[in-house]
Design brief:
By secondary structure, the protein is mainly alpha-helical. The protein is built from four helices and no strands. The chain has a domain of about 80 residues. The termini are far apart.
Protein backbone atom coordinates (compact mmCIF):
# COMPACT_ATOMS: atom_id res chain seq x y z
CA UNK A 1 0.00 0.00 0.00
CA UNK A 2 1.58 3.23 -1.17
CA UNK A 3 0.97 6.40 0.73
CA UNK A 4 1.07 9.71 -0.98
CA UNK A 5 3.18 12.26 0.81
CA UNK A 6 1.19 14.99 2.53
CA UNK A 7 0.76 18.05 0.40
CA UNK A 8 2.51 21.10 1.83
CA UNK A 9 0.12 23.70 3.17
CA UNK A 10 0.00 27.13 1.65
CA UNK A 11 1.29 29.24 4.55
CA UNK A 12 0.41 32.47 2.80
CA UNK A 13 -3.23 31.42 2.49
CA UNK A 14 -3.25 30.40 6.17
CA UNK A 15 -1.85 33.77 7.21
CA UNK A 16 -4.35 35.62 5.05
CA UNK A 17 -7.21 33.56 6.50
CA UNK A 18 -6.02 34.37 10.03
CA UNK A 19 -5.83 38.09 9.25
CA UNK A 20 -9.29 38.10 7.67
CA UNK A 21 -10.78 36.16 10.58
CA UNK A 22 -9.02 38.40 13.11
CA UNK A 23 -10.36 41.53 11.47
CA UNK A 24 -13.85 40.03 11.40
CA UNK A 25 -13.57 39.04 15.07
CA UNK A 26 -12.51 42.55 16.04
CA UNK A 27 -15.36 44.20 14.12
CA UNK A 28 -18.01 41.78 15.33
CA UNK A 29 -16.78 41.92 18.95
CA UNK A 30 -16.91 45.71 18.99
CA UNK A 31 -20.36 45.63 17.38
CA UNK A 32 -21.56 43.08 19.93
CA UNK A 33 -20.37 45.23 22.84
CA UNK A 34 -21.88 48.38 21.30
CA UNK A 35 -18.49 50.09 21.01
CA UNK A 36 -18.70 50.98 17.33
CA UNK A 37 -20.50 54.24 18.13
CA UNK A 38 -17.25 55.42 19.74
CA UNK A 39 -15.65 55.27 16.29
CA UNK A 40 -18.34 55.83 13.68
CA UNK A 41 -21.78 57.39 13.23
CA UNK A 42 -24.57 55.35 14.88
CA UNK A 43 -26.12 54.76 11.45
CA UNK A 44 -23.22 52.57 10.21
CA UNK A 45 -22.80 49.63 12.67
CA UNK A 46 -25.13 47.37 10.62
CA UNK A 47 -22.83 47.87 7.63
CA UNK A 48 -19.79 47.03 9.75
CA UNK A 49 -21.49 43.83 10.93
CA UNK A 50 -22.21 42.93 7.29
CA UNK A 51 -18.54 43.55 6.46
CA UNK A 52 -17.50 41.33 9.36
CA UNK A 53 -19.66 38.51 8.03
CA UNK A 54 -18.22 38.97 4.53
CA UNK A 55 -14.70 38.82 5.99
CA UNK A 56 -15.56 35.49 7.65
CA UNK A 57 -16.71 34.11 4.28
CA UNK A 58 -13.45 35.33 2.73
CA UNK A 59 -11.42 33.69 5.51
CA UNK A 60 -13.20 30.38 4.92
CA UNK A 61 -12.43 30.73 1.22
CA UNK A 62 -8.74 31.19 1.98
CA UNK A 63 -8.79 28.12 4.25
CA UNK A 64 -10.31 26.09 1.44
CA UNK A 65 -7.46 27.30 -0.75
CA UNK A 66 -4.89 26.31 1.89
CA UNK A 67 -6.30 22.84 2.54
CA UNK A 68 -7.97 22.10 -0.79
CA UNK A 69 -6.81 20.06 -3.74
CA UNK A 70 -6.07 23.00 -5.96
CA UNK A 71 -3.13 25.06 -4.91
CA UNK A 72 -1.88 28.37 -6.07
CA UNK A 73 1.79 29.21 -6.15
CA UNK A 74 3.07 30.14 -2.71
CA UNK A 75 4.15 33.73 -2.50
CA UNK A 76 6.77 34.87 -0.09
CA UNK A 77 5.66 36.48 3.16
CA UNK A 78 6.40 40.17 3.33
CA UNK A 79 5.95 43.12 5.66
CA UNK A 80 2.61 44.04 4.13
CA UNK A 81 0.91 41.52 6.38
CA UNK A 82 2.31 43.32 9.41
CA UNK A 83 0.62 46.51 8.24
CA UNK A 84 -2.70 44.68 8.41
CA UNK A 85 -1.98 42.73 11.60
CA UNK A 86 -0.90 45.72 13.69
CA UNK A 87 -4.21 47.65 13.66
CA UNK A 88 -6.14 44.40 14.13
CA UNK A 89 -4.11 43.60 17.25
CA UNK A 90 -4.55 47.13 18.56
CA UNK A 91 -8.29 46.91 17.98
CA UNK A 92 -8.51 43.61 19.81
CA UNK A 93 -6.25 44.47 22.73
CA UNK A 94 -6.97 48.13 23.51
CA UNK A 95 -10.29 48.99 25.15
CA UNK A 96 -12.59 51.43 23.42
CA UNK A 97 -13.43 54.57 25.38
CA UNK A 98 -15.77 57.43 24.59
CA UNK A 99 -14.36 60.92 24.28
CA UNK A 100 -14.33 62.94 27.47
CA UNK A 101 -15.58 66.49 27.81
CA UNK A 102 -11.96 67.69 27.78
CA UNK A 103 -11.60 66.53 24.19
CA UNK A 104 -14.48 68.75 23.12
CA UNK A 105 -13.08 71.84 24.81
CA UNK A 106 -9.70 71.44 23.13
CA UNK A 107 -7.75 70.54 26.27
CA UNK A 108 -4.78 68.38 25.56
CA UNK A 109 -4.64 69.23 21.88
CA UNK A 110 -1.45 71.23 22.12
CA UNK A 111 -3.02 74.62 22.76
CA UNK A 112 -0.99 76.55 25.26
CA UNK A 113 -3.48 79.28 25.91
CA UNK A 114 -6.62 80.97 24.79
CA UNK A 115 -6.91 81.78 21.14
CA UNK A 116 -7.04 85.53 20.62
CA UNK A 117 -8.83 87.11 17.68
CA UNK A 118 -6.66 88.74 15.07
CA UNK A 119 -6.03 92.46 15.23
CA UNK A 120 -8.56 94.52 13.27
CA UNK A 121 -7.53 95.42 9.77
CA UNK A 122 -6.50 98.95 9.06
CA UNK A 123 -8.87 101.09 7.05
CA UNK A 124 -6.10 101.99 4.64
CA UNK A 125 -5.78 99.11 2.14
CA UNK A 126 -2.32 100.21 0.98
CA UNK A 127 -0.74 99.01 4.21
Amino acid sequence: MLRTPPRPRDRTALLEAALLAGTAAMLLAKAGRGELVFYIHPRYPPLVVACGLILIVMAVGRLVTAFGRFTEPTRGLNGGYLLVAFPVLLGLLLPARPLEAGALSGKGLGTSGAIRPAAPLAADSRQ
